[in-house]
Amino acid sequence: MTHTPVRDQLEPPPWSTLPGMLRERARAVPQATVVLDGETSLTVGQLRVQAAAVARALTALGVAAGDRVAVWAPNTWQWVVAAFGCWDIGAIVVPLSTRNKGIESEQILTRTGCRVLFTTPDFLGADYIAMLDEVAGHATDARPFADLPELDHVVLFDGTHDRAGVLTWEAFLRLAPTVPGPDVEKRALAVRPDDPIEILSTSGTTGEPKGVLLAGAQILRAYWDWSHFVGLRTGDRYPIVSPFAHGFGINAGIIASIMRLAAMVPIAVFDPEQALEQVERLGLTVLAGPPNLFARILARPDLPDRDVSSLRVAIVGAAAVPTELVRAMRDRLGLEQVVNAYGLIEGSVVTMTRPDDPPEVVAATAGRPLPDVGVQLVDAHGRPVPDGERGEILVRGYGVMSGYWNAEDKTRSAVDADGWLHTGDIGVLDPAGNLTIVDRKKDMFIVGGFNAYPAEIENLLIRHPDVETAAVVAVPDPALGEVAWAYVVPREGARPEPADITAWARRNMSNYKVPRKVTLVTSLPVTANGKIDKVLLRGWTQTAPALDPSEFRRVLGHFATGVVAITAIDPATGTPTGLAANSFTSVSLDPPLVAFCVAHTSSSWPRIREAERYCVNILAAHQEKVCRQLARKGPEKFDGVPWHASPAGTPVLDNAVAWLEVATHRQHTAGDHDIVVAEVHRIAARGGAPLVFFQGAYGQFAR
Predict the structure, then answer these.
(1) What is the distance between the alpha carbons of residues 246 and 375, in angstroms, rounded to a whole number?
(2) Is the pLDDT assigned to residue 493 strictly greater than 50?
(3) φ, ψ for residue 633 (rounded to 5)?
(4) DSSP three-state, residue 424
(5) Angle at 49 between CA 44 and CA 50, to 5 degrees
(6) Can you identify the CATH homologous superfamily of domain 36-191?
(7) What pTM was computed for the model?
(8) How far apart are CA 191 and CA 364, in angstroms?
(9) What is the CATH number of domain 444-532?
(10) Which of 78, 82, 574, 625 is deepest in the core (most CB within 10 A)?
(11) Beta-carbon contacts of residue 188 (< 8 Å; ≥ 6 apart)
């Protein structure tokens, strides 16, 4: 059945382009504060002026309408200014995740042909220019990177860099007066509603990431409606925790805030444990996050003594939320509204709960379609299914993407001739049009002839009183074909036993849904777009960690860039016996391959075998380059730490602790360094030979 509700219709936004929206907002309420970033605050009038300066400077660099401009940086006020400067001249913004490694960003920059890159020389110890240097070649007289022929300039939001083609923020802005202001105004007025404004990368969980092309008018309409139902309004203080490189961060964050004249608070690094303090200190009014964030706040023993009266709205996106948690959020935090929603990069916002929905609807569903958005569920043969039955979610309307960048064949596979976007998600519609997300179509597995959906099992598991969140993957089983394995994060302070959770599942689930194995972890790995990385979890099922995953998470939990991992190697066989990292794939590969794979990509792959092939291909393409660079820059780059080439040509550093001294000193805090060094010694004491990798260089150390 198709649902396109006609009630709660809204007037469309009063603008059709982003330059038009920014100018009208700046004329109407120039003093409205729209950015609060530490000591920097911007009114919408100031944003308008600074964006125009960026637009003039970009014009001076030769950027034309339709050219691509990348931003590889954390959430900051400069990110916002740079984006609106691009949009003022019709340029397309290409956000790059701060979790990317050099090879990932190099692929996106090459694929989209970016002319300019905005970045920062140091974020949490990650040097993005150095990362690109390893995979895209050194600077030439004409451009910053030899192997990125279309990238003419790099602009640093902060700091300096002695490299051809790299400009500081101040030097970049000094170019603005060379271009007359009226020229840029003409370009802003020439921007059309259907002109593309951004190319967002998919997370890559189904293969190589694709670039999703979105136009200005569709984003304005989608997030005008979204912000209406959220209740975002002038004067709100709205922390943007989601990276600006993610669709939510750039659209529901940056663009929605300017439309509604809310003060966005860019959060570069979010600490969930500090959320309550930030609400109190900054007077936050709107907070978006997963359900466990709000569960943690409610579990704080000092909550009754804290002032959270400013908090008005909570947003949890397409997540399973216990009904009692929704009630507690409203009753104990005083929230006027808890919002659940469903959307995807290719389809923008699809469904949302409404302010008058009861807790049961907010908890169990992602709400109803937005006005003028069509939702249809179909079976495996493309036939509509009745309400209450599972089907693949199809979406049609203004929010559907223009297409995948330079990939017409993939666009045709995703959007059919009638304009329906095939999401690959499985859902159920109730008679009122509320959508419940059941699972990803590709994640469904068959247990003894019964269709099983990981998301359904996960939603059941979180009803266990000691379970905060869970992720379920399928593993082969000789008798049943496939069965479920569950990775479970316990609630704070709870200490459940896996056997207890399994027994509870047997009492509360159909037999075929019961996880055959439960593993307790302190957190779940995520992709660059913040989704649970099921491919990595499937890898864990192939080679189980020798040490408890919780211990590994404790050791590496603070490595936000995920550049360090430790593998215990069986001295007799040379095979991995344990893995540790924020995000990694555990596969039966030679350890240097595992190291290289994880060091160079935070993306995921659909199957472990594809991961192996990807790993081998990448290694073959870049091993020689990495070795050559180490040979050329080793003494300088690593402060003279001795290393040699193995018989296979793999760089091997001669001293594990000395290597860690360099790696952790350059990348992490002293506390992290001490933890990692201690862990290396601990693994060595257990009989393993630690393998440590670091930003594309790696070494295996004997005990």
Answers:
(1) 23
(2) yes
(3) -115, 0
(4) strand
(5) 95
(6) ANL, N-terminal domain (3.40.50.12780)
(7) 0.71
(8) 41
(9) 3.30.300.30
(10) 82
(11) 19, 20, 23, 55, 88, 89
